[in-house]
């Protein structure tokens, strides 16, 4: 599972990086030519009054028999890839249910949102924690927790992380009958005004 998530993370970064680079290069070149920079002879447009696609360019391949099937096939593949990417990203965002080991060999299903709420409540009740959010990802038999904690100004990050691990996460893991509950924890300090000394 971690291997698939790692590959998906890499694919996301490569796709977003490539799309961003393409947009910056094309947009920057159009802006530069529009501001009066002379483009090279091989570039897609010649000057500030040139259009990106002329009438001749747009109608050039319409009479060819392969043109429309190719356009439709490329667009269909692009749409299918985009839908696959979107479902893969949304599927790993939040876990709908967790398989709880009841000891009878069958197990029971616990709503992921319920486990998130209980874990967030316990984490938020820890000393030095002002607020907590939790989301579950992974598989229902092997969930992974993502925890965001907002710490009070006096809270020590190391001590708070130790309490979260040994109390809240351990309790959630034991209650659900899980062998492990990996967690990614993000800590952020709450802003506070200056203190007056009298």
What does this structure look like?
The chain folds into three domains: 1-52, no CATH class; 64-92; 97-189, Alpha-Beta Plaits (2-Layer Sandwich), CATH 3.30.70.1350. The protein has five helices and five strands, in the order αααββαββαβ. The chain has helices at residues 2-34, 55-59, 67-91, 112-124, 157-175; strands at 97-100, 108-111, 129-139, 142-151, 183-189. The strands form two sheets. It has a three-stranded mixed sheet with strand order 3-4-5, with helices on one face. The chain has a two-stranded antiparallel ribbon with strand order 1-2. Strand 4, helix 5 and strand 5 (183-189) form a beta-alpha-beta unit. Helix 4 runs antiparallel to helix 5 (157-175). It is elongated, with a radius of gyration of 27 Å. The N and C termini lie far apart (57 Å).
Low-confidence stretches: none
Distance between the termini: 57 Å
Strand content: 15-25%
Mean pLDDT: 81
**Roughly what percent helix?**
40-55%
Biggest pleated-sheet summary: 3 strands, mixed
- At CATH level 2, the architecture of the largest domain is 2-Layer Sandwich
Top keywords for this entry?
three-stranded mixed β-sheet, 198 residues, 3 domains, 5 helices, 48% helix, Alpha-Beta Plaits, alpha+beta, two-stranded antiparallel ribbon
Write the layout of secondary structure elements.
Elements: H1 2-34, H2 55-59, H3 67-91, E1 97-100, E2 108-111, H4 112-124, E3 129-139, E4 142-151, H5 157-175, E5 183-189
Parallel strand pairs: 4-5
Antiparallel strand pairs: 1-2, 3-4
Helix pairs in contact: 4-5
Put the structure in a nutshell.
With 198 residues, the protein is an alpha+beta fold. The chain has five helices and five strands, in the order αααββαββαβ.
